[in-house]
Amino acid sequence: MCARLRLLYNQKKLEKLLGSISILDQLISNANTAPTEKAVIVASSDGEVKARQANFGLYPSWLDKHSSSAKFCNARLETVEEKPTFKEAFAKRHCLIPANGFYEWREENGQKQPYLFQRQDSKLIMLAGLWEARMDNNVPVYSFTILTTKPNSFMSEYHNRMPVIMKDENLHSWLENKADKSLLETMPLENLEAIQVSTKVNTPKTKNVEMIDRI
Q1: Which of 26, 106, 190, 198 would you label with 152, given CA atoms 20 to 30 Å apart?
Q2: Mean of the pLDDT values across residues 72-78?
Q3: C-alpha to C-alpha distance for 213 and 196, rounded to whole angstroms
């Protein structure tokens, strides 16, 4: 499961990992991004790497526009090629979700204690994702889901799933829409760290970074 993101990036941080990139929408800062909220995704088309806003939670064309896409915020890597909701996007529409980190919770002293997972080198984490676009009132609406996999030994102490955290050397190959799961080997655990943060992050309404980080 990966359903809460920390988004405090800028164009320079994106370009440090991806090189030249076209920014099609405003880069959103949101220290506590939940499903159905907007985030920036990176995809490739016409040989160009582009960043745009998209809704967190895949919103396929067959889903009723009054239904919530939150239930499609994650796609299991083990079954993504089989599930009708995800299989076409896995074959044709890959993206990266750049983030400073993501939050997970574990039971401690009778309460859910949140942790922030981030790279030790402070670079952006690039999460593997899939995207969709559908027309609503003749306007394209973009959405995405994050691929999840079995946890490595580091993450298993906190949760029974983890997002696919892309290795830097595989970023551009993934954006070329190669349906190759070998590209989705997640970043080695020694590159990550877990930081205990305030339980105020438990509600998506808490957006203030200082409130989240103060424990």
Answers
A1: 198
A2: 96
A3: 8
